[in-house]
C-alpha cells in the first residue's frame, strides 16, 4: 500500500513537472521595447513588429508525431508571443519549410496551410515572408519558375522574391538573398534591378545620407569579414544571449540534410546593398544569434 502511494505521488510530481516545463518552454522570453503593453484597440505612432525565422515546417509526408509535436508547440508559442507583444506586423525571414526546395507544388501548398494553422486566430495579422535557401534551394537548385510560383503564394513578393512596401511610417525592402549569393544567374539580375529602382527613388526623394533609407529584410546576413580598416564596418556590441541560441552546424532537419547556418552574402553584394539603399536597419536570419554591426551609422541585426 505504501509502495503504491509512493509510486502514485511520484507520478503526480512527474506530471506536474512536465506541465510546468511545457509552460516555461512555450513562453517567449522576448519583451517589447515599451514595457507598457498596449490595449488591442489602442492606436499609437509606434510600429510593433514580431520577427521570426527558420520555422522549418515539415512536409506532409513526415511522421505524424513530428507534425503533432511541431504544430502543438509552435502554435502555442505563436499564441503566447502575440498575446505578449501585440504586434502590428509579422515578419518571417525565410525557411518556412524544412525542405521546400525539394517539394512538389501540392506538398508546398500543404506546408503553407500548416503555416496558417500555426498562426491560428492571428492569421488575419498583416505578415510578410522572405524566401530562404530551404524554401527555394541552394545555387545549384535555384529555379526562376519555382521562385516565381512560391513568391506568388506569399503576400507582396514579386516574381524574383523581392518586395517594397510601407507599414505605418516605415518603408521596407525585401531582397532575395539566395539569388544574391548565387553569382551570375538571371534571378540575381532581377534582384539588382529592384535595388537600383529603390536607390533611384531614394535619390529622387533627396535621401542621400546613410541611415535614411528603408528597413532591409534578408535571409542571409551581410558579409562579416570586414575589419576596422575596411569601410568603417565594425562590431558594435554582442548580446548576452548569443551563446544560448547557437545550433549545431550540421543539424539534421526532417530529412532535409545538414542545416548550414553559416552562409553570409558576398562582400561585394553586402557593400552594394549598403551603398545603394543606405538602409535604416537590416534584419536577417540564418545566424542563430543576436548581434549588431555598424556601418557608419547604419545598424544591422
From TrEMBL:
Belongs to the metallophosphoesterase superfamily. MPPE1 family. SUPFAM superfamilies: Metallo-dependent phosphatases. Its cofactor is Mn(2+). Residues 49-153 form the Calcineurin-like phosphoesterase domain. GO terms for cellular component: membrane. Pfam families: Metallophos. Residues 1-25 form the signal peptide. It comes from the Eukaryota. Keywords: Hydrolase, Manganese, Membrane, Metal-binding, Signal, Transmembrane, Transmembrane helix. This is Metallophosphoesterase 1. Its main location: membrane. The lineage of its organism: Eukaryota, Viridiplantae, Streptophyta, Embryophyta, Tracheophyta. One of its GO terms (molecular function) is metal ion binding. It is found in: Membrane. The keyword Lyase does not apply. GO terms for biological process: GPI anchor biosynthetic process. It is a multi-pass membrane protein.
